[in-house]
Amino acid sequence: MPLKTEILTAIRIVSRAKFIPICIYSAIFLILITWLSAEFSGRQPATVALDIGISYIKIVLPIICILLAQELFTKEFDRKLYLTSLSYPKTRQSFLLGRLVAIYALQIALLFLLSLTLLLCLKSISAGYEQATPVSLGKPYLITFSFIAIELFVIAAIASLLAIRASTPSFVLIGTVGFTLAARSFAPMIALLENNTSLMKNSSEYKSSIGILGYLLPDFNALDTRAIALYDSLTFLPHNWTLNIATNLLYGIGLITLSIWSLNRKKFI
After folding, report:
1. Helix (H, G, I), strand (E, B) or coil at 112
2. For the whole model, what pTM was predicted?
């Protein structure tokens, strides 16, 4: 019951922070972006619209996650509302888990809304132009967004951890955005240096330096499986996709464990 109460409390707090209008505006911008990208593409308008739409979703959702973490953790501590939020018989663990579950549940709800909006846009675009290689809006589409949901789990975990430890809201923004960009980009950079060693001097040393990030960060690039929906072929699915899912989930669970430990040791003034 305490966990359920914390989840409902967090959702009520977020609803007062105009989360619903943000979702509506996000869906409207998605429609506008996909429509414009399809109109200005010379060929394969549905493929271009799907690619741009997924990129938009992968940019917007982490930002909204940061805003939720700031609202439910950082502002809570700044306003000293923890004097009631962490009072007996509530535990700090239930406080954190309740709000983390609320953040992730709201993200999944928005992901579902945006994926459904994008699906309807793509059906409308596909009806007006028949492509030689149509996009897949079935199982590959569902798999693509399932992988995005796993990425959002890790992002929600790191945003919550930083919100607990940060003294300013800007640190949560900078830290989470930096973490997300690094996790998405280090693997493509390594692959680029391996395939083209003439890009820079001492590319091997640079590659080994970037490779260290592979031991510190999850590989979000491995979770980007949009190609299977863009080209309607499951052959683009990584052969080690189960390992990618497991490592990212374990990384997220590790961050949550660290968050609980950090909150239990946090001293409030």
Report:
1. helix
2. 0.89
